[in-house]
Design brief:
Blueprint: E1 4-7, H1 12-23, E2 29-32, H2 39-45, E3 53-56, E4 59-62, H3 64-74, H4 85-101, H5 103-114, H6 118-126, H7 133-151, H8 158-176, H9 190-199, H10 220-226, H11 232-241
Parallel strand pairs: 1-2
Antiparallel strand pairs: 1-3, 3-4
Helix pairs in contact: 1-3, 1-9, 4-9, 5-8, 6-7, 9-11
């Protein structure tokens, strides 16, 4: 039965799953949704309203980590989860760290700047959607921006805390990778995939499949420029495995 991924093209958690399926060489169909309008459909399919959600053989699997576990179980070729117990535990722990301590903070920190630039962010939010998506989101943008800021706590002091969390996460990754190519063992795993995909909006790789803006406004641009050296590793992971 067909694999269908319900997603936002802009979402780095959805990119995590897209990458996993592409890495495994799986055939799948993307079902893109517009933010806000996705809620009704997701409520019909899963417990929460968040994406990504994978449909397969009458089942709906929600959340990037759960989906990757499911994919490794159902399609064991090119596994992303190490088979050795200690390495498996380490990879899952790194993924939990990235999901909790990188993903939400990248999202909050990026949107704090981008939501003040609707000409930049509306095309990203509408990417891959219906032909009427852009004009609809432009019309609804004041309310959408207000809702996103409320739901994601995109305000102070939370934005500053997210920036500090990202500083810490990049330092932690840098320390763990000293003299190493991968976070766990000597091969690409879900740990590397999680870290690179969730950091991707900060270095905007071509493999993400999104048409990134040519220029990113400050203060986001200034922070990215200051962290180019620490973003070199996830960029390299994209070049090697995406």
């Amino acid at each position: 039965m067909e694999l269908v991924l319900h997603q936002f093209p802009i979402s780095h958690y959805c990119e995590k799953v897209r990458w996993a399926m592409d890495y495994k060489g799986l055939d799948y169909r993307l079902q893109n949704h517009l933010p806000g309008l996705h809620v009704k459909k997701m409520r019909q399919m899963a417990k929460k309203t968040s994406v990504p959600v994978l449909e397969h053989e009458g089942r709906s699997i929600q959340g990037s980590a759960s989906i990757i576990t499911y994919l490794d179980e159902q399609f064991p070729e090119k596994p992303l989860t190490p088979s050795e117990a200690t390495q498996r535990s380490a990879a899952l722990e790194w993924e939990r760290f990235c999901d909790a301590d990188i993903g939400p903070h990248v999202r909050r920190f990026c949107y704090d700047t981008l939501l003040e630039h609707p000409k930049l962010v509306v095309p990203l939010l509408a990417s891959g959607g219906p032909f009427w998506g852009k004009p609809f989101l432009r019309l609804m943008f004041p309310q959408l921006r207000k809702t996103m800021r409320r739901l994601m706590a995109i305000k102070e002091p939370e934005v500053t805390r997210s920036r500090e969390k990202l500083d810490f996460a990049l330092e932690k990754l840098e320390g763990a990778l000293e003299g190493k190519q991968y976070l766990v063992g000597d091969r690409f795993s879900r740990a590397d995939l999680a870290a690179a995909s969730l950091l991707a909006p900060l270095f905007m790789p071509a493999g993400y499949g999104l048409e990134w803006p040519r220029e990113v406004p400050s203060p986001l641009r200034a922070w990215i420029d200051e962290h180019q050296a620490q973003l070199a590793w996830p960029r390299r992971i994209y070049e090697m495995h995406r």
